[in-house]
Amino acid sequence: MDFKVDEDWEEWTPEKGSFLHHMAAGSAAGVVEHVSIFPIDTIKTHMQCQRCPVNSTVLRMNAFQTAKKLIAEDGPLRLFRGVSTMLGASLPAHALYFSVFEACKKSFGADSAELTPFQSGAAGVIATISHDFIMTPMDVIKQRLQLGYYAGVLHCMKTMIRQEGFRGLYISFPTTFFMNLPYSMIMVSTNESIKKVLNPSGDINVGAYIFSGAVAGAVAGALTNPLDVAKTRLQTQMLSLEEPTRVRPCAQNPKGISLNKPPSCQIQSSAPHIMLQAEKRMPFQYRGLLDAMFQIYKQEGIKAFFRGVGPRVCVHAPSVAVSWTTFEVLKNVLAGEDH
């Protein structure tokens, strides 16, 4: 039986496939985005976790020094540690994000050829809220794995829930929410506006998609970096301020990775396996977004809020370009196949 869609593809009903198109295109966009820029994101996370008091003479490592150190310790794949969290979470999160975004665009009248930065930005904000409910816990786990802690995703999640409760998985959600509101507003409105100027016809134009996405991601990423620093600190605050302990390699832990070392735990080698001493739950260093920003400013100065801004821009410029280009191309291709 032939199935054809004779109406506009933006209008979704159960009898038509545009909603599924947005989900499929969004899922693919999310996977491509996160995997392609993951090494840069790992470097950014390490830079933002460096603690350098205002009067300290210790020089923090830049992006190249951080990358060199990580690769020297464990090889190039060290930069991809934790990437599985993004593969699992980005599929449903981005499918939901782009589906909600397209529905809101139509409802707000942002799908016309005219410039509609406020309507587009509002659609992006609503889509971001739904996206963050899924991504926040996995982002917490991702950053802890990037820093070299825990044996894997499940080990990290179980340990966090046991030691910190479910609150540990969502402790940065308010910060993520307040960061992503301006980020999404800036990124989406900039992306949509530039895209309409460069490609008023609405036809597939990869060059326009890449350029508009790159500019939008760079601008939004730079302006929201201070909030991202606070979010990273909140998500990793239960970890030791020192480097993860390198334990003796063995059959169960061939690379000698620190399985878990928050301030409350110590790790010792006991052949032929690694043993964890008794765990003791410790209080959080930061009580929330405002407290984190106050402590960072008081202890490390205003410069601390711009740590990792270079890698963050290098993350968001290509990630937005790749993600939105993938989405726009697949969306139009899938829509064309139904006509």
Provide the descriptors you would attach to this structure in a database record.
single chain; 339 residues; mainly alpha; Mitochondrial carrier fold; 2 domains; two-stranded antiparallel sheet
Describe the protein.
By secondary structure, the protein is mainly alpha-helical. The chain has two domains: 18-238 and 287-337, Mitochondrial carrier domain (Mitochondrial carrier fold, Alpha/alpha barrel); 248-283, no CATH class. The protein contains eleven helices and two strands, in the order αααααααααββαα. It has helices at residues 18-48, 63-74, 83-108, 117-146, 153-164, 167-170, 173-198, 206-223, 225-236, 289-300, 309-337; strands at 267-270, 273-276. Strands 1-2 form a two-stranded antiparallel sheet. α3 packs antiparallel against α4 (117-146), α7 runs antiparallel to α8 (206-223) and α9 packs across α10 (289-300). The longest helix has 31 residues, at 18-48. The relative contact order is 0.15. Residues 1-17 and 259-281 have low confidence and may be disordered. It is found in: Mitochondrion membrane.
